[in-house]
Amino acid sequence: MAPGLYMVAVPIGNARDITLRALDILRDADVLAAEDTRSLRRLLEIHGVPLGDRPCLAYHDHNGERVRPRLLDALAAGQSVAYASEAGTPMISDPGFDLVRAAREAGYPVTTAPGASAVIAALTVAGLPTDRFCFGGFLPNAGGARRRGLEEMRGVSATLAFYESPKRLGAMLRDAADTLGADRPAAVCRELTKRFEECRQGSLGDLADHYADAPPKGEIVVLIGRGGSEKISELDIDRSLSEALQTMSVRDAADTVSAMYGVKRRPVYQRAMVLSREDGQGG
């Protein structure tokens, strides 16, 4: 195995959601590092990958300054180092950033074995537009800072994606409803790929009410669809409808474009009917 730093994506729930290449790297790397060594050891056991006498080092936010030099020393010695976060893809809301930056600055090869990611999994199943999305990671714990963070994203014309803890979910959704608009479409995706996987859809206001007194369990991704915007012009909608009508029915084009811009469906459907007749495409 060539020397260098290998960022290895691991499952977010179902242990079988790991790639063959990731297993090869975990089997052959000279040094293993993980945000949670217990989780990584368990994953190795499940897939029959022997650890042997190789070092398996914990590397996380609280010990990065101390452990990072050891990993860089291994790279300097021409060894291969594989790093895995606790779940999902390294560098997505986890402590891998400083390690990758240090390795690159020192001139060592850095590559990735891509795979599972909670935010991508949520976008896959939620039914919200995915042509553009903005990942906001974890919002601040404090209510005021959280609302300011949401306010900064009000004008982003994309589906918004956040990670959130169960105990803060209700407050976060209420702040989002108050800041971004209670009618804005959203989804709460919980325990993705696990036995009790759930994707609850609704408006921000409805979801905030649902979770206000009933905090859920498990890992959570919150997705918030595009809101209405004064910057959206009839020309923008017509252009998107014309493109959609090339491959979709009037009904499907209206559904897609209204969701894309976060606007009411009825006027978009009526406009799609007009464009369809003008183009002679039928319904």
From TrEMBL:
Q: Where is the Tetrapyrrole methylase domain?
A: 5-208
**Which Pfam families does the entry mention?**
RsmI_C (PF23016), TP_methylase (PF00590)
> Which keywords fit this entry according to its UniProt record?
Cytoplasm, Methyltransferase, rRNA processing, S-adenosyl-L-methionine, Transferase
What SUPFAM superfamilies does UniProt report for this protein, alphabetically? Tetrapyrrole methylase
Could you say which EC number(s) this protein's record lists? Answer: 2.1.1.198
Using the record's annotation, list all stretches that form the RsmI HTH domain: 234-275
Q: Which reaction does it catalyse?
A: cytidine(1402) in 16S rRNA + S-adenosyl-L-methionine = 2'-O-methylcytidine(1402) in 16S rRNA + S-adenosyl-L-homocysteine + H(+)
Could you give a GO molecular-function term held by this entry?
rRNA (cytosine-2'-O-)-methyltransferase activity
Name the InterPro entries on file. 4pyrrol_Mease, 4pyrrol_Methylase_sf, 4pyrrole_Mease_sub1, 4pyrrole_Mease_sub2, rRNA_ssu_MeTfrase_I, RsmI_HTH
**Subcellular localization:** Cytoplasm
- Gene3D superfamilies given in the database record: Cobalt-precorrin-4 Transmethylase, Domain 1 (3.40.1010.10), Methyltransferase, Cobalt-precorrin-4 Transmethylase, Domain 2 (3.30.950.10)
Q: Name one GO cellular component term.
A: cytoplasm
**Is the keyword Plastid assigned to this protein?**
no
What the protein does comes down to: Catalyzes the 2'-O-methylation of the ribose of cytidine 1402 (C1402) in 16S rRNA.
Q: Which HAMAP family match?
A: 16SrRNA_methyltr_I
Checking PANTHER family in the record gives: RIBOSOMAL RNA SMALL SUBUNIT METHYLTRANSFERASE I
The family database entries (NCBIfam families) matched by this protein are listed as: 16S rRNA (cytidine(1402)-2'-O)-methyltransferase (TIGR00096)
User: Which family is annotated?
Assistant: Belongs to the methyltransferase superfamily. RsmI family.
Report the protein name in the record. Ribosomal RNA small subunit methyltransferase I
Q: Taxonomic classification, please?
A: Bacteria, Pseudomonadati, Pseudomonadota, Alphaproteobacteria, Rhodobacterales
